[in-house]
Amino acid sequence: MNNILKAWNAGMVKRWHCNPQLCDSNDYDSGHQQRCTILLLLFWPDATREQIIDMLTHDQGEIDAGDMSYVVKRKHPEFSSQLQVIEVESIQNQGLPVFVLDPEDYAKRKWLDMLDSYMWMLRNKPTMRHKKEWEVQNRLLWSNAEKFNVIKIYQDFMTAALEFYAD
Predict the structure, then answer these.
(1) What is the C-alpha separation between 157 and 13, in angstroms, rounded?
(2) Residues of the chain scoring pLDDT < 50
(3) Count of domains in the chain?
């Protein structure tokens, strides 16, 4: 497949297929990557070009590796490492750059990725926020917002989101 066609098609990978409660919500990698990039720019307006490109393309490799559930990645870190190799190779084969982020920027990317998934859940099935796994994720999001020194912005965002989406 032509690398430009493959890169374009990579955005069509469907998310949440392993989650029975969200699998019908029609979320695709293209939308997820765009939302994460917007969040990056709003939480860190001085984000570097590399951070922006990384966020915009961070799941492009899932066209070859698939969108593997967080649960599987957490339970099987060796499998997660193998998927990472496949994803990086796929992104490079699409003709896109892959950046090695410093640990703090990588942690921010993971936090925004998690934040987008939490927001997707709130938008589509807000009652799920009371399930243990989502409560754990929520606590982690709050603690990292404090660690990244964006707690005020995060608090305002989450207050508005809960008012808008919560049942």
Answers:
(1) 28
(2) none
(3) 1
